[in-house]
Amino acid sequence: MDMTINSLVIISSKMVVMSSMLYLLAMALYIFYIVFKNKKIGLAATIMGVTGFILHFISFIIRWVEFYKITKGGIFQSIPITNKYESLMFFALLLAAFYIVLEFKTKNKSLGAFAFAISGSLSLFINAISVPSNLNLLVPALKSNWLLAHVSLSFTAYVCFTIASIAAMLYLIKTVDSKKRYSYIVYTLVLGIVSAAVITIIINIILGQRANTTNMIIIFLFFAISFFIFFYQKGLNLKNVFKDIGYEEDKIESIIYKFIAVGFAIFTVGGMVFGAIWAQTAWGRFWQWDAKETWTFITWIVYGIYLHGRLSNKWSKEFAATLALIGFLVTLFTFLGVNLLFAGLHSYGSV
Amino acid sequence: MKKVINIIGSAKFAFIVILLILFLSMVGSIFSESSVEKLKHNAFISLIFNPNTNEFRNFATNLGLIDIYTTPLFIILLALFALSLVICTIRLIPYAKKGFSLLKEDDLKSEISTNLTGSDLITFFNKEGWKIDATDETSVVRAEHHKPGRYGVILTHLGILLVLFGALVDYIYGFKGVISLFEKQTVSGIEDKNGEFIPFGFDITLDKFSIEYYKNTYTASAFRSDVTVSKDGKVLKQDYIDVNRPLNVNNINFYQADYGLAPNENMDIYLTYTAGTYKKDEVLKYGKYYQAGSYVIAVSKFTTMYNEDNMTKKEAIPAIELVVYNQFKQEVTRGFLLLKAVEPTYIDFIDMSFHFTDLKGVEYSSIAVKYNPGIAIIYLGGILMCFGVLFIYFLNYTSISFIAENGMLKYNVRAQRKLSLVNPADKFYKFIKENTDGYDNK
């Protein structure tokens, strides 16, 4: 498969680098804001984040237009979310957008540091470690309007689940005060796994075709265990950092629920049903237990269990937040792990 | 019997079944036909199983780990899940039909002193699209909103059940397979898993297979098969199959799944050669000898070679091995020529150059065939699932019972979901707040 690059695509990639730097700057300002509670710093953080988002959005549109010119397909078939670079960029863009909406709606900046840390570091790392940012020529199977409907909605749901997990992490950091609690073990474990996953992805991309699955698993396990031990030892200190962030615990809990509920509805329609219809149209079967499909199903079930448990009001909020974090681990694996570890019908995204 | 139904319909039972399904799904995603060959070379697995034999594959097969989704255990679990869902859904129907009951004045626990009258509130609710049950201002009035929200869970569950049922119909009565056709080839059926021939009831002939490539690449931008459907020699239909555009004939669907290159005796190999100043275009057949100047040439092999243009991308390019003989059929030289190479290959000691310019008749079209009699049921299930989840999370069935008399408003708010994305009662609270003096102090 050949790739095409032109000056506008290069400009678009450079704009992403700039926006990711703005995101990281915003993250730093949000942290200062949490620590010092200075309104001017808070305003500067928001301006920085929004500017980064606008730049990122413009670069996305440029890429879309350039992709449209090359593929000569429909405008909806040219949305740039067809390879690893584009999908991670799209994810970072949506996460920034959702966070900004959340901040304006709740008038609270507490989650900004988390959201922009993820958006910024993700875009910067992907650019820094030379994942090809060129435009891929679209394979015929992806030339369908379902691309927009299925892929973009799935990513939107992933972003909702990510925000819910950030809130769940915050909830547990704020409420759990003993190392012996199961929820403490889970959230420090998640912090360890996510940190290890980021490091492993970077190493995987640096090694390129020299990376093999066994080595990657060993590297991942090594970092996961190391980070877990570190966070387990030091995790309670985080409580002090977030003790006075302006969010009531019930409010955070409601954010977890609402983002999971919206994400679940979008995931059901876009990820499961639209995906099945597209598969039926393109491949002649609506479901084939391909690795991505299987893990989509697992993700759907995990969040389905969360919503059933939450609606029954029989669970403690601590348990629900813990399950939301476990759901995020599954989501992370569905979004990235499956493409890295398994070949399958959804392997377009592994490029 | 009632006890069994209670057990199967319980949340605990459903939870255990779902956990087992999840576990088997995870296992199934690791062990597949394609992954098992890679897995046997894994450092850990090769410690136990010899990677040069089929030991690991046999082990996984005997345990039923490969294609776990068609094993009796997995199907039984899905059936139990469906059964649990049926019982749960049936139990939900009476509540959904009934909704929140009418209340008596004594049940209205919240009260506020306000100038609002019953008719003010009825006007408000009517304007907001609530359904009013009683208009007699002297008795308790019930206003309801987002009533379809009551059916969200039932619709979603019904959708899942229909999808499972459609899949079962497909599993029992459907068939699938892949046919590979060269141009002008005809098929009249496919072989199923057991090798049994399943006739379509008509013939399908590949008239023409065409591939379009992106400019200056071998990346297909589109490929399609023009076909003729006929029965007993009589043409029924001429149509085409494109990626994302299947062809339906008598409910059997044909999908453009893939294409491939297979060397065959009939393929045309276009070669341009020069010998000194003499230049000629020749169409060669695989394995045949041709006079080329004072030499004889023949194509001895057909393959694909990779043109690695960067670390992550590979491009398969057709290549032929050309053998040059002298007049006594003694080999002079041989080498591979890439299709549409930028420059011709020049061989100095025979002063000839060769350019492999085109290749025809080598592509075959891979067409997936699928007969799924359950697909309409599955689509219906999918639609119900979509509406169901939207109803659950974006509609919140709410009932407000109230009575307003003597400057007092007594009311009771009941919502299907305490924790929800939408709360229709918010507007009610806002309305009484805006129309009641000193509300904030109460």
Q: What does this protein structure show overall?
A:
With 351 residues, chain A is mainly α. Chain A has 2 domains: 1-133; 144-351, no CATH class. In chain A, 76% of the residues lie in helices and 1% in strands. Chain A has helices at residues 7-36, 39-71, 84-106, 112-128, 146-175, 182-207, 213-234, 237-241, 249-282, 291-312, 317-341; strands spanning 3-4, 135-136. Chain A has a two-stranded antiparallel sheet. In chain A, helix 1 (7-36) runs antiparallel to helix 2 (39-71). The longest helix of chain A has 34 residues, at 249-282. Chain B folds into 4 domains: 2-95; 100-146 and 396-441, TATA-Binding Protein (2-Layer Sandwich); 172-259 and 364-383, no CATH class; 268-362, no CATH class. Chain B is 31% helix and 36% strand. Chain B is built from 10 helices and 21 strands. Chain B has helices at residues 2-8, 11-30, 33-39, 45-48, 55-62, 72-98, 118-127, 152-173, 375-394, 425-434, and strands at residues 110-113, 131-132, 141-145, 175-181, 186-191, 197-213, 220-231, 234-242, 247-249, 252-261, 268-275, 278-284, 289-292, 295-306, 316-325, 331-338, 345-347, 352-360, 363-371, 398-405, 408-415. Chain B has a 5-stranded antiparallel beta sheet, with helices on one face. Chain B has a 4-stranded antiparallel beta sheet with strand order 4-19-10-9. In chain B, a hairpin with an 8-residue loop joins strand 2 and strand 3 (141-145). The two termini of chain B are 55 Å apart. At the A-B interface, helix 9 and helix 10 of A face helix 2, helix 3, strand 7, strand 10 and strand 19 of B.
- Note the gap between the termini of chain B: 55 Å
Count of β-strands of chain A: 2
Radius of gyration of chain A: 20 Å
In angstroms, what separates the terminal alpha carbons of chain A? 10 Å
Which pair of protein chains has the largest interface, and what are the residue counts?
A: A-B, 57 and 64 residues
List the total number of helices of chain B: 10
Q: What sort of overall outline of chain A do the alpha carbons produce when their principal axes are compared?
A: globular
Number of domains of chain A: 2
- Work out the strand percent of chain B: 35-45%
Helix coverage percent of residues of chain A?
over 70%
Count of discrete domains of chain B:
4
Overall mean pLDDT of chain A stands at 83
User: What's the alpha carbon Rg of chain B, rounded to whole Å?
Assistant: 36 Å
Multimeric state of these chains?
heterodimer
